[in-house]
Amino acid sequence: EQYGVELASPTDVEIFADQKDFAVRTFGLPDIAGFLGVCFGRVVTANSPAAVTSPTNWESVLWHEFCHVITLQLTKNRMPRWLSEGISVYEERQADPAWGMRLNPAYREMILKDDLVPVGKLSGAFLAPKTPQHLQFAYLESAMVVEFIIGRYGIGALRGVLHDLRDGVEINAALAKNTAPLSDIEPEFEKFARAQAEALAPKLDWEKPEPALLRANAADDLAEWEKKHPDNYYTLKLRAARAADAEKWAEARTALERLVEFYPNHKEADTPYRPLVAALQAMGDTAAEREVLKKWVAVDDEATDAFVRLMELA
């Protein structure tokens, strides 16, 4: 309804319990990994939970692919990958704030260190990324461009771009026609992206300490540095990790609770929620553990260990 599309039906979803079967059906080759699902307009192929070892929210995956069903049918498959992926990632986050990609410390640093790709060259970010991380960042940046367009020009402008693509208009021309010329969009989007990066956990100090300060024999120098950089993201993590290694759970808890307080939306593998839960478990504080777990699953849809622990406690 939002995109004004009347879909052809049915949409077929083929789910494979064996990753190689999925790869052969999707790509014609058995040894292509890294894909959870792929959309062909009216057909979606997907690996099943049995085929993938990493924690994955399958409702979110299929929602993402169904967004492709909508946009590919609307444009008759005439759209660049960056815009298709950008809309799907954006719509995941609209469906549930715990779903989809979001800014994290690594992507924050990439934006502020000029790894942002100009909007007019985003297709190249998918075709020839510098590293696997740059490819993942291309998904996030594309979603940020979609968010920027909708926020600045409205959903109608995005629909206009998609309709023009369907009619054969080139992407940059379609953007210029429905929003503004690329010469205006690119600097404005860069300001938007930088503002979002700066707004990530703004109460945390994000300056990276010199590697020499992080060595085990540099404790005194690090302590001096910390006095000048209170609530530093990197030293709070280090302090918590060292305290946990020494089984000083109260000290680890204090540092981790500070991180969670200032950065409550931190998901993914390096989230402070996971070691905080471990510290609370070691301290036997089940009530506090349960509250932290509830906050964690509210922001991270793929924290399967948190969901399992909540079931155990229930």
Provide the fold topology.
Blueprint: E1 12-16, H1 19-27, E2 37-39, E3 43-47, H2 58-75, H3 81-95, H4 105-112, H5 122-127, H6 132-153, H7 155-166, H8 171-178, H9 182-198, H10 219-228, H11 233-245, H12 249-262, H13 273-283, H14 286-299, H15 304-313
Parallel strand pairs: 1-3
Antiparallel strand pairs: 2-3
Structure characterization notes:
There is one protein chain. The chain is mostly helical and 314 residues long. It contains 15 helices and three strands. The protein has a three-stranded mixed beta sheet. β2 and β3 form a beta hairpin. α11 packs antiparallel against α12. The longest helix is centred in the middle third of the chain and has 22 residues. The protein is globular and about 65 Å long. The model has no long low-confidence stretch (mean pLDDT 93).
Structural class category: mainly alpha
Rg calc: 22 Å
Largest sheet: 3 strands, mixed
How do the SSEs run, as a string of H and E? Answer: EHEEHHHHHHHHHHHHHH
Strand content: under 5%
General shape: globular
Oligomer: single chain
Our measurement of the CA-to-CA distance between the termini, rounded to an integer number of angstroms, reads: 39 Å
Measured as a percent range, the helix fraction is 55-70%
Strand order of the largest sheet: 1-3-2
